[in-house]
Amino acid sequence: MKSVLRQVLTLPVIVIAMGYFVDIYDLILFGVVRVQSLTELGLDKEAITIWGSIILNAQMFGMLIGGIIWGMLGDKKGRLSVLFASIILYSVANFLNAFVSNVEQYAILRFIAGIGLAGELGAGVTLVAEILPKEKRGYGIMIIASFGVLGVVAANLVTEIFDWRNAYIIGGVLGFMLLILRLGVKESMMFKQHEHDNIKRGDFLGLFKNKELFGKYIKAIVIGMPLWYVVGVLVMFSPEFAKALNISEKITAGQALMYCYIGLSVGDLASGYLSQQLQSRKKAYAIFMTISIASIVYYFSLSGADASSFYLAVFLLGVFCGYWALFITMAAEQFGTNVRATVATTVPNFVRGSVIPITSSFIFLKDSFGVLWSAAIVGFIVFTISFLALYMTRETFHEDLDYIEA
């Protein structure tokens, strides 16, 4: 394992892992400071819930738009162009977030930040997948994801020490510091080999015109939805679930997100390592999705438990939904070099964007079925279609990625 790490821990992997760390810090920061920041801006309890949802959805919608922009740019102009431009945009937006005076400004800046945040992971994963040997690329992406998700731990710790405005400033400054480190990273040779070929690159609409590509693309998105069901519903609304489960001690979304993301980091390492040992992405993915369902059932069974038991359950939710690295690897491996960045950048952001219909469905059903049953219904639907998509997805562990989609 030591020799593998020596081969995998190259400058691009280290710098991209650090970039994803900052990306996750900025992505999750609003969830951590939602109540504090909106209270300071003068909102009452009901308005905090309404505007919290609006601002979160604005950020996620920005990521949908940004995913398309950065994905196409990554295939047309190179992976590095995205890694530089996206971090500048989201660092500026996060810095300015510290100076908002009303919720409208807040929503606009989270939308802009969302556009910038959308480019980080997809471009980074594409670059690493193309520069590492095929038998090692799973380890590289595993390291990026497992280190990156610890950004939420940093976000939670920073907000315990500093107020929400300074937390946004710190996020912006970290981004600009990281920008300097990126100067030593080189472009993917796979991209450079085909840079001047007379082929269509970054053809996002082409993914919808070709039946085979469209099928692969939709399946790549759907299999990742359970993770954001867990984060966007079960963890983000953890105070509401704690109340429904009659947990008397105070439960905060910030603490829940921290424990969940620590679990995600552990899970990303474990699922990535399992896929390398099984030499199969699909088998490892299916195993983790199955155990994830068991962890959700345990979460729903915590009636009357104490806070420590609740946070343990949240941690376990994170561990067994910790297949984000595996999910991104599978998406990148499904497509050729001329659309790989487009896919690897848009797919995770469409999955993140799926939090909009998922949370909206949960909220819609909540009044009729209650918090627990509405979440259970939505979860059943999400996991069912995800298992079907995984079953129909081809195995890519041993595939060479140096090819072009016609």
Describe this protein's structure.
This protein has 406 residues and is mainly alpha-helical. The chain has a single domain, classed as Up-down Bundle (Growth Hormone, Chain: A). 78% of the residues lie in helices and 0% in strands. The chain contains 20 helices and no strands. The model has no long low-confidence stretch (mean pLDDT 88).
What is the fold's blueprint, element by element?
Layout: H1 2-8, H2 11-40, H3 45-77, H4 79-97, H5 103-117, H6 120-131, H7 137-148, H8 151-161, H9 164-181, H10 189-194, H11 206-209, H12 211-222, H13 225-235, H14 238-244, H15 253-278, H16 281-300, H17 307-320, H18 324-333, H19 340-353, H20 355-391
Helix pairs in contact: 2-3, 2-5, 2-6, 2-7, 2-8, 2-9, 2-15, 3-4, 3-5, 3-19, 4-5, 4-6, 4-9, 6-7, 6-18, 6-19, 7-15, 7-18, 8-15, 12-19, 12-20, 13-20, 15-16, 15-17, 16-17, 16-20, 18-19
Keywords:
single chain, 406 residues, mainly alpha, Growth Hormone, Chain: A, 78% helix, 0% strand
